[in-house]
Design a protein that fits this description.
Layout: H1 2-22, H2 29-53, H3 57-81, H4 89-105, H5 109-130, H6 138-162, H7 170-188, H8 209-236, H9 242-262, H10 268-293, H11 296-318, H12 324-357
């Protein structure tokens, strides 16, 4: 089973990394490097043998995942040998660069997930340096960046779905991109994120050129991918279908990210209202797209974010207005009723999806 194999590889990887970390100070420099290199090569070799020579694809992929985890632990342990700070953003970048080839060499969804998470973490570790000179508005810039990155990963996943050879890499990219984009947009729905408004300005200070280049380049790539995906999709279908609507939605969300970073209205209320409305429409779009495409995972993700958003809005606007005990009692009632309604809606949507996917009787 893939799940058991992945869990096993993660546990073994954690055990090996913890063993090395506990005994690290008692080992000389060169033996340290030799042990790490041997562990990485051994895990990759065993995984390759099991996957490609013994036809144990799932177990072999799990062992290669283990090799990727050992490599990441090795990068950080070697960094300690050379007195590199454990929070140095270069370490996460080196880990990502070491795992990235495996994303395309091994058609394993857990390795794809690891690679994308490492990419997002590598950028996240670098982000404080890029906005170090910004004294207010950091949350806006960080959330906007991850909204753009999420849309970029989602767009990459969408175009891979249109190319047969790349289709095995589509699902994980789309899911990670979708969750990242929705999570970033959810952060922007809070009114307090825009509380740095002072005399019409909410971002004070200059971000580094690398940050500006990243969001500009990512935005240009998203637009190019949306157009290319629409063209590839239209080649196989003569009419403008759901794919085109999804592309338009991505462009609108991308525009929203640039608006919150670059447009000054002097009103936090304006931003919070518009972003909340956009987030609600985005969640509705995810549910509709998931239903029409028969994607149960998208429906589940959309409903989870709907529930989280309802709870967040309740506490955000009631915390200073009601007695604390009443807040929690009411929240509990809302959660019970909301949980029932969400689960009922989810079951109905999934039942309709499964009915549509099942072969017609008779």
């Amino acid at each position: 089973d893939t799940g058991l194999a992945v869990i096993g590889s993660v546990l073994v990887g954690l055990g090996i990394i913890l063993f090395f970390a506990a005994n690290w100070d008692g080992i000389d420099r060169w033996p340290k490097l030799a042990i790490i290199l041997a562990a990485i090569l051994t895990a990759h070799g065993v995984g390759y043998y099991l996957r490609y020579h013994r036809n144990y694809a799932r177990v072999g992929s799990a062992v290669i995942l283990l090799a990727c985890l050992i490599y990441g632990g090795g990068v950080h342990l070697v960094g300690q040998v050379y007195n590199v700070d454990v929070n140095d953003p270069r370490l996460m970048l080196f880990w990502f660069l070491g795992v990235f080839p495996m994303v395309y060499i091994v058609k394993s969804q857990p390795i794809q997930l690891l690679g994308l998470v490492l990419l997002l973490l590598a950028i996240g570790f670098r982000l404080p340096d890029w906005i170090d000179e910004v004294s207010s508005g950091e949350a806006i810039m960080g959330a906007a960046l991850y909204l753009i990155l999420g849309l970029l990963i989602l767009s990459v996943g969408r175009i891979k779905e249109e190319i047969f050879a790349l289709r095995p890499y589509s699902k994980v990219f789309q899911l990670v991109g979708l969750i990242t984009a929705l999570g970033a947009m959810f952060v922007l729905t809070f009114k307090d994120v825009f509380d740095a408004f002072e005399e019409g300005r909410y971002i004070e200070g200059e971000s580094e050129l690398a940050f500006r280049l990243l969001i500009a380049t990512a935005g240009a790539l998203i637009l190019a991918l949306v157009v290319a995906t629409a063209w590839l999709h239209r080649r196989s279908e003569d009419e403008f279908t759901l794919s085109g609507v999804e592309g338009i939605a991505i462009v609108i969300a991308l525009a929203a990210a640039y608006v919150v970073v670059g447009v000054n209205t002097g009103s936090d209320v304006f931003y919070s209202v518009v972003i909340n409305a956009l987030f609600a429409v985005a969640l509705l779009g995810v549910l509709v797209s998931g239903y029409l495409r028969g994607r149960e995972t998208w429906v589940n993700i959309g409903l989870v974010f709907v529930g989280i958003d309802i709870v967040a809005r309740y506490f955000e606007y009631s915390w200073d207005l009601l007695d604390r005990s009443l807040i929690f009692v009411a929240a509990g009632v809302i959660l019970l009723i909301g949980g029932y309604l969400v689960e009922r809606t989810r079951q109905k949507m999934l039942e309709l999806i499964r009915t549509a996917d099942s072969p017609q009787s008779g």
